[in-house]
Amino acid sequence: MGEVKHLCLVRFKEGVVVDDVLKGMTDLVAEMGMVKYFEWGQDVLNQEMLTQGFTHVFSLTFATADDLTAYMGHERHAAFAPTFMAALEKVLVIDFPVVIAKPPPTAAP
Amino acid sequence: MGEVKHLCLVRFKEGVVVDDVLKGMTDLVAEMGMVKYFEWGQDVLNQEMLTQGFTHVFSLTFATADDLTAYMGHERHAAFAPTFMAALEKVLVIDFPVVIAKPPPTAAP
């Protein structure tokens, strides 16, 4: 309850070594205690009409909106952001309080 | 391991009763055993430059890519899809195998 997600969809510039960017992001998140959960993935649809050209999803979960604010304002985030942004051809960001409409079976006793 | 997400970002048409659409989707997902987890949320950034006009996120998690394929091809999904699509001004879909870069603390023993 009360969880907030910071969802980031991107398309990398041609020539960018995505693994390097991912390593930078994973290292950053590992250091940042207020990030509860970090998952990412690469689109497999590959249908421009549906994906609108975005190829990667990064999803950060925070226990509270305050934790997200603390993350966004943290100096380590500020230090990494320019490197990340420079690698992107396009980006879309949405922050949202998570509503669980169907809980995962593992949440059951 | 092996989980796949079906991520759907949308902006509803003006006048659409979002709660009705959500109820339809929640009912559908509740009936569909192959959907492991369903969460959604409404953007709180409200910054067009970042969100590109998308306002809602729907995230369906499947244990395997086969489960996602079964969901997409199911007659109940086919029956609901036109109602859903008719409510949308814009939509973006990305399917991706989930890579967990920082596991949630609850996953620890």
TrEMBL record, chains A, B:
- Top-level lineage group: Eukaryota
InterPro entries per the record? Dabb, Dimeric_a/b-barrel, HS1/DABB1-like
**Record-linked Pfam families:** Dabb (PF07876)
Residue ranges of the TM segments: none
Q: Per the database record, which ranges form the Stress-response A/B barrel domain?
A: 4-96
Question: What is annotated about its quaternary structure and interactions?
Answer: Homodimer.
Designated name of the protein? Stress-response A/B barrel domain-containing protein
Organism annotation: Digitaria exilis
